[in-house]
User: Which sequence fits this backbone?
């Protein structure tokens, strides 16, 4: 009888455990608010595999919910059950959307639990090979001589290339005609063929084309030169005369607001270990991305950083007069 009583007590204690005590017990969905095959999708899939290893080999499924500059996928994640089985991997547009769109179906600083930053991806200023300039000094002279006639490609409103283009125009004080595409691939195709003049896009999109000599590269947007072999010779915009210019496209991990702390703590621990996974590290280095290794891998510091990004990009977007009705 005593043995049966002890078993019963153990069973009762197990039944009384909160639902997240054994988390995770089933596949996790990682919402990516951009199309499959793009740079954020590539980061997400590599990160999902690294995260899987730290969560007991639980499958992490990537759900591409693209559209409206990333706001559709972000809204989907914000509305998901806060049980830890739906997460969001988003980039800088989570911080720019409040300024870009007059209405949003979520609140960036209120509707998510912040789990930590993942990486930062530098940008490169590139042009069609038909452009006569061969370095950034020559490019600036060409821009000054072609005011009102310059086409600047981007992968759509809210995309990394759109945001970098706004910042570049503001720094150069040269207005360019934005040409928006439905993704990076068609934008790059037209740049290569000479249908458009310039683009400022992530190294994850541009490195292969630069290596192949299909486009001209003029500078990187970070304040230090990059170590990636194909990009190491490129000067920074800061050293090229645009003092203080520093733009990277960061990626971070988020969960719906109200996800239990026990789960967010578990995910944060898994994130920190995933960022040290050798396979993930190698894949990011190959893309020219920099894995975050500072305090922003913690939720509170990540949120402070995003809040500062909202303020920074808000000023740029307001100055450019670009706001869209959602």
Assistant:
């Amino acid at each position: 009888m005593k043995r049966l009583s002890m078993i019963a007590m153990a069973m009762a204690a197990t039944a009384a455990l909160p639902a997240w005590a054994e988390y995770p017990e089933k596949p996790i969905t990682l919402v990516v608010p951009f199309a499959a095959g793009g740079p954020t999708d590539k980061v997400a899939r590599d990160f999902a595999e690294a995260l899987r290893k730290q969560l007991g080999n639980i499958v992490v499924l990537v759900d591409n919910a693209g559209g409206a500059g990333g706001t559709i996928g972000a809204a989907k994640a914000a509305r998901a059950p806060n049980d830890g089985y739906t997460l969001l991997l988003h980039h800088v547009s989570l911080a720019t959307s409040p300024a870009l769109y007059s209405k949003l179906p979520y609140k960036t600083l209120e509707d998510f639990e912040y789990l930590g930053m993942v990486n930062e991806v530098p940008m490169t200023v590139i042009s069609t090979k038909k452009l006569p300039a061969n370095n950034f000094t020559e490019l600036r002279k060409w821009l000054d001589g072609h005011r009102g006639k310059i086409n600047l490609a981007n992968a759509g409103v809210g995309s990394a290339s759109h945001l970098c283009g706004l910042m570049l125009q503001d720094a150069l004080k040269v207005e360019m005609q934005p040409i928006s595409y439905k993704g990076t691939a068609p934008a790059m195709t037209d740049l290569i063929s000479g249908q458009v003049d310039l683009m400022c896009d992530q190294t994850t999109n541009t490195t292969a084309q630069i290596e192949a000599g299909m486009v001209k590269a003029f500078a990187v947007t970070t304040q230090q030169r990059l170590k990636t072999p194909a990009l190491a010779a490129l000067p920074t915009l800061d050293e090229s005369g645009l003092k203080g210019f520093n733009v990277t496209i960061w990626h971070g991990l988020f969960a719906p607001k109200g996800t239990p702390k026990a789960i967010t703590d578990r995910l944060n621990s898994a994130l920190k270990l995933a960022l040290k996974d050798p396979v993930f590290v190698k894949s990011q280095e190959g893309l020219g991305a920099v894995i975050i290794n500072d305090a922003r891998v913690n939720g509170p510091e990540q949120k402070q950083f995003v809040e500062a990004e909202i303020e920074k990009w808000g000023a740029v977007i307001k100055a450019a007069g670009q706001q869209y009705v959602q």
